[in-house]
Structure formats: C-alpha cells, structure tokens
Amino acid sequence: MAPGNVNFVGDIGRQNSRGAENEAGEFCEDEGHYVQMTDNNGDQPEFETPEFKSLGHCIRFRSVLLTAICIALMTCFSLLICLSQPGLAPAKSVTDTAWSNPSASEFPVPYTTKGGGSPSVADNYLSSERTAFHFQPERNWMNDPNGPMFYKGYYHIFYQYNPDAAVWGNITWAHSVSKDLVHWHPLNLALVPDHWYDAEGVWSGSATVLPDGKPVILYTGSSNESVQLQNMAVPEDLSDPLLRKWVKVPQNPMLVPPPSIGYTDFRDPTTAWLESDGLWRISIGAKEGTTGLALVYKTSDFLDWTLQNKFLHKVAGTGMWECVDFYPVSLTGKTGLDTSKVQVNQLVKYVLKASLDDNKHDYYTVGVYSTDFLPDDPTKDIGLGLRYDYGKFYASKTFYDPVQERRILWGWVNESDSELDDIKKGWASVQTIPRTLVLDNHTGSNLLQWPIHELESLRGDKVVKQDILLDGGAMVKVDGASGSQLDIEVTFKYPDVHKLDVLPEQKEYVCSQGGAAERGVFGPFGLLVLAANNLVEQTAVYFYLTLRPNGKWVTTVCSDQSRSSLAKGIDRTVYGITIDKPPTDNFLSLRLIVDHSIVETFVQQGIACITSRVYPTIAIERDAHVFLFNNGNESITMQTLQVWQMSSTY
Ligand code: DQQ
C-alpha cells in the first residue's frame, strides 16, 4: 500500500460524515423534533421576563399573541391555497421560498423516511435541490416522458403528470414546447382523465408523425374499472404549431387486452413504424405469467387494428414490459432513422427496449427484424444485457428529429429521497438531458449516447487543467471550478498495466463493496463533484482497473453517492458498470453533467451512462467543489480537464 494513501477520500469522507450524522442525531434525540425546538425558542422565554409577570399583562400579552398567531396561520393557509392553484404562484416561488422552510403545522405527519430515523440536518437545503437546466415542471409529480416529437418548428414533450401533488396519482399528459430542446415553455395539460376509458389515468404512450405531417397520439387509458385500454387523440387544429388542443377520437377505446393478457398487463403503445407492405405496426408491452413480451398490432388507417400472431419478442422471467420502444439504427452512418419511412437500406439494425416493471431498469438489445425481432447476441437479450443507464433512469422514449436527422432519447429520473421530502419540495422527478443515440460503429452491438449539442449553449466560464500526475492517495482541488451547475469533460491516460513491478489485482471489482474508499492498485481514480471543502459531502465518479483470470484487463466505472449527503433517508447505492474500452483508446474519459441534485455521467464517449440523484446539504453552489483523486497505489495522469459553469434555463 502506498504511504500516500493514508489521507484519502473515503477515510476523510466516512469519518466526518459519521461524526456529523452523530452530532445531528444526538441533537434530535435530546431536543425533540428540530422544527418544534425552533418554535419554542421564539416564544417561551418571553413569558418569564419581568414585564409580563402580572396576570393582566399576561392575559393582554396572550390575547395579542393569540391574535398574532391567528393572523399568521390564516396567512399561511391562504398562501398554501394560492400555491395549490396552478398559475397563481409566480414561477420561482416554489423553489425560492414557499417550500424551503416549512413549519411543523404544515406537515403534521411524523417524520419517517425510506431509510428510517429522523433527519440529521435541517430541511432548508431542499430548495437548492431543484435543477436549473434539466426538464422539470414548475411543481408536482412527473414520471415517464411521452410522445416526444417535432412539429412545425417546435419540439414537443408530453409527460406523465399529477397536477395536484408531488406524488404519483391522477395522471394526465402535461405538455411543453421548445425551439432548441434546452429552453422549454409549459402549455396547458394536453390530455386529462375525462372519459370512462381513461378515468383512472391517462397513462403512457407515443406520438407518430404521419408522412403527410399529421401527428397522432396513442396512449393507454386506465379505465373506470382499472382495465388498460389503448386510445387515440389527434390535434384539434393542425395549423397551430404548438398543438395546444387534443381531441380523443370517438372510436376509443381502440384496443382492449387480448385473451391471453391480463387486464392490467397491457400498456404503453410505441410510436408506429411503417413497413414495405404499406401497413403501420405498433408494439404494446405485456406479460404472460412471468414472461415479459411485446405484442404487435398492424393497421392501414390507425382505426382498424389486427393483432399479429407472432410477438415482436418475449423473454422468460423478465416480468411486465413497460414503455417498449422499437426503432432502426444505421450500421454505417451517424444519422438517425425515421420510423415513418420504410427502411429500404439493408444496412440497418433494430433496437428493442423494454422498461422492466420488476426491477425498474431500461434494457435494450440490438438485433434484426423481419416479422419478429431477434437479438444478435442472446446473452445480451432484454433483462440480461445492456442498459441505457446503470443508475437511476426509467420509462425512456426516443423520437426521430427530422431537422437534424438524429434519434433522441429521453429518460425519467425519479427522486432518491423520501416521499415526505418530495412533498416538502413540492416537486418530484426530472427528465435526463436529451441524448443523441447512434449505433457504435466499432462494435455494431451497443449504442453510444451523448448529450444533445444544444446543451453546450449553456456553457459559460471555463477552467482548463492539463497533465496532472496523481500519485497514490492524491487529492487535488480544482480551483475555479466550484458550483452546482457544471459540465465537465476529463480524460485520464490509460496506465501501463503491464509494468513488471506491479502485482495486478485479479478480481471482479464490485463498485458497491468499497465505493470510492476502496484502495486498489489501478484505481479508484476519478473526480469528486458536489464536494464540501472538508469532504464530508462528496459524489465520486471513478474508474477501477482489474485483471480477469483469462488475462483480460477490465475497466469498471462507478458513481458513488454513498457520501453525497449528510441528510438521512436517501438512497446511497453505489452504481457501476464494467465497460469494454475500445482497444485503440489509450485514455479513459468521463463527461459529467452536474445540476444541483443530479449527476449524469457519460463514459468513454457514451459507451455507458450512469445517472445519480444526490442531495448535498452543505456542498451547494460556491461551497460545492470539484476534486481529482487517485486512491490506487499506482500513479495516474489526468490528461485534460475542462469544467464549464452552466447557466440556468428557468
Ligand atoms: N408509468 C405509466 C404507465 C407505465 C409506467 C403510468 C412506467 O403507463 O407503464 O404513469 O413508469
């Protein structure tokens, strides 16, 4: 073990983190609930001062006090009513003040968290968790992205939305538009539960832009009897580029669950794709027993539908498939392919994606398609192989952007804190930065994901560092790179793993077993972001290299959120994935998009992605720092680091 390793990230982080939690924990135990103690501090002592010793004074004081309390309560009550009315509160009020320091009376529910226990720190950090350039509605609950499309100069995104609360329920389709996929403008709700066939919710679905330019929405309605039915909606006014009004067609429901499928196992129609027989196909997620599957229906007019005998695909043991996506990718080019055009070029592969209800992960597989889909590599089938993202990411959907001829992916990123925290914040969930998707032409077997280039328009001040040697145990603060809104690109020289005097680690490295605190030979090395000066809070994203018994060197990349927050009751999973580094790359690279409570990591030009939700309580804004670290024995060279400050879009 190198002597330098003593002063390291994991040790410092763990010790201090434990200390602070204990401190706060004792405080809570001794003094009762934090909020109550704050209230008592203000009022109680004044009754004991000499001026208020006489009964008359006491009664007068008490009535004055009671009146004051009444007025304060009424003001709070009216404020709450205002905030619950969509459109009445100014855009920033939820973020800035209203939910940042709620009083006990507003939240009478005893504080319990997913992890149990009391909060270890005050809640006022919650207001800083709202993102600045990720897509999220002004308030309330959001889940799956629905029906993304481009129409007459505008990008449209719809999404699953609860207009009434920051928890799932009463699901509608909310709607926003953008000229650049970065700055978004909210519109009125597009679809609400107002018919028997969607009375319990307007659930997920997709848009198809027909060759004549008309868009069509297909979505799942959860009926008044909780049966999942497929429905259609069309724009009321095609001349409106914002497509503000949608009309549900009188033929609804168009599809009911077929005989072998349960009433609640039939949902989320895909974008339709056009085939050479002139017919359109859609796929719908389902299950039979524990076998997850994708049904296929065909139609010429979107009104009469026929169920194909053959499934698109099925995989035993994977459970219910939600939000299926299916699209072609080019084997040669960098451009995306349009599902509303027949694929005449043979140089295409197909991608099938299913969101597995059982484990809440999005799996994709690359293969060929004729009447059904066949994965190229059965060991990389749905549920077994590749995921879009190895962190928090679900119910994603792609669309074809005809303007820039690219396929773009959106994914839903839920919170990792408690439901009560979400209620206090007044909102829950964000969408990822839209990502371009192309087939990796080198392997032909995986996708490459990258943030849309438009995101770079938000880049501001930049810090560049080059050629920094990180000895074992090194921890280097990156001056001038502090902040909660960052875009970071870094490359490390791939170390000389064949050095004769080095005994390589022959093991499977599992990110969650040691996290960034593990001490190895080649790694862990990487970046800390949203890190406090004394490292009591830090989110580590790093590499770790090990040798397999078969002589193959393996690159593991991890996103360690276990020390990201002093708060209790949040998920501390260490995410990770082993990548196949292209043999020609003599470097390892990361791109991190940091936005208050989300860190999106793109590894090696997009071979793999890891998204984490983190909730720093003190490593916020100018107190959130970036460090380079190396916790391995062997030195590592950081080649180039670029850190941009990112501006807000709201
Ligand atoms: N969310 C929707 C469903 C879908 C699920 C309901 C996936 O249609 O299957 O909000 O998150």
Characterization of the model:
- The chain is mostly beta strands and 650 residues long.
- 12% of the residues lie in helices and 37% in strands.
- The protein has six helices and 36 strands.
- The two termini are 48 Å apart.
- The model is unreliable at 1-119 (pLDDT under 50).
- The structure holds 2,5-dideoxy-2,5-imino-D-mannitol.
- The site of 2,5-dideoxy-2,5-imino-D-mannitol (DQQ) has 12 residues, from strand 1, strand 5 and strand 15.
SSE layout and pairing:
Layout: H1 9-31, H2 34-43, H3 55-84, H4 93-98, E1 140-151, E2 154-162, E3 172-178, E4 184-186, E5 202-209, E6 215-222, E7 228-235, E8 246-248, E9 266-267, E10 273-274, E11 280-288, E12 291-299, E13 306-307, E14 313-315, E15 321-330, E16 348-356, E17 361-369, E18 373-375, E19 394-401, E20 406-413, H5 419-425, E21 427-428, E22 430-431, E23 435-439, E24 447-451, E25 459-470, E26 475-477, E27 485-493, H6 511-514, E28 522-531, E29 539-547, E30 553-560, E31 574-579, E32 587-595, E33 598-603, E34 608-613, E35 625-630, E36 636-646
Parallel strand pairs: 1-21
Antiparallel strand pairs: 1-2, 2-3, 3-4, 5-6, 6-7, 7-8, 9-11, 10-11, 11-12, 12-13, 12-14, 15-16, 16-17, 17-18, 19-20, 20-22, 20-23, 23-24, 25-36, 26-35, 27-32, 27-36, 28-29, 28-35, 29-30, 30-31, 32-33, 33-34
